[in-house]
Input
Amino acid sequence: MTSYLFYSSFALYLTAGILYLLQLVFSRDALAKFGLRLTLLAWVLQTALLALVFARVGYPFITDSFASYSFTAWVSAAVFLLLNLRYRFQVAGVVVLPMISTFFLLAHFSKQNYGASGLMNSPWGSVHIVLSFLALAIFSLSFVLGILFIIEEFQLKHKVLPKVFLRLPNLEILETIHTRSLWVGLILLSGAIITGAGWAKSVTGVYFFEDARQLWAICAWLIYALILQARLAGWRGRRGILLSVLGFVVILFTFLGVEHR
Output
């Protein structure tokens, strides 16, 4: 049953992404509307999938990379659907849906078991993982928003296919949502670092030890804190968004390139 729900929701997300791409090419609003409905259906199926997995596993409910990346995809889709309720955000699906599909691929092929490192022996472990992958989802969406801002700014400046981006929120709204997502992501990452230190203390006896993921998470936190400080100091528009791309690269490396010792 779980395999059926997993592959069905993945196929629906993938199909929705293709529909958004076709809508971008042919400018047919009906394609985007159908893509949004498929995204909602995929999210409902994935909700059922996660409910079954969590009911079977119990607490703590995120114990491996399958559950964690599936959870990240679920959060990303939920935020995308919520943004569609308030803003003209459908065309963003051409970028968001491939990102969600990528999280599904990571869930399928990544085989990391957090319990093997003793993580689940600590009450801090599950909270740390949830906050970490919530931060990954929000930072991923902020990255997508930044890319859309840069593309839309370029299109408007050079007057290349401007009609496509009339379906997006204006640059000011995009930047506002992007900045807010950075703040939310930084708060979640702060919580992940604090609970990670609590886990390290309960398992190893010290708050910080020779763990590369801890170090890179702190580096990512410092970069995002610097980004937001720069924004408060007046680094608006493309400069601030390009700087945020660096933070996302570090976040990706932290999650995909580094493992807990």
About this structure: The CA atoms of residues 124 and 199 lie 5 Å apart. The radius of gyration is 19 Å.
